[in-house]
Amino acid sequence: MRKAVLEALHNFFGKNIDFKVTSKLSNGSFDMLDDQELVMLNKRDELMVVKDKIERLLRYATSEYKKAKKLFKRGEITIDELIENEEKLNKLRNELDEINFKLRQ
Predict the structure, then answer these.
(1) What is the DSSP string of 42-94?
(2) Is the pTM value of this prediction over 0.70?
(3) Is the pLDDT of residue 23 over 50?
């Protein structure tokens, strides 16, 4: 998305535009971020996007697992299919836990 915005600005102004990323400090002044902080910020943003997607998938997988449990009780699916749904749910939970751990660091 950032690349598209920069390309649109470049097309509009017809020249290269250099942007400076700043961070507002608690005292109200601004300070430049160095490259390492910018990379960390970008990784954190990416992790937040992935976290949101995994949370959506987890909600969907939870509802699918509940449906699968009901179907299993009625004898409409096998235990293997139920276990497969449970494994998907656990995998998403583990991925979400890993991302939350990375975000806390």
Answers:
(1) HHHHHHHHHHHHHHHHHHHHHHHHHHHHHHHHTTSS-HHHHHHHHHHHHHHHH
(2) no
(3) no
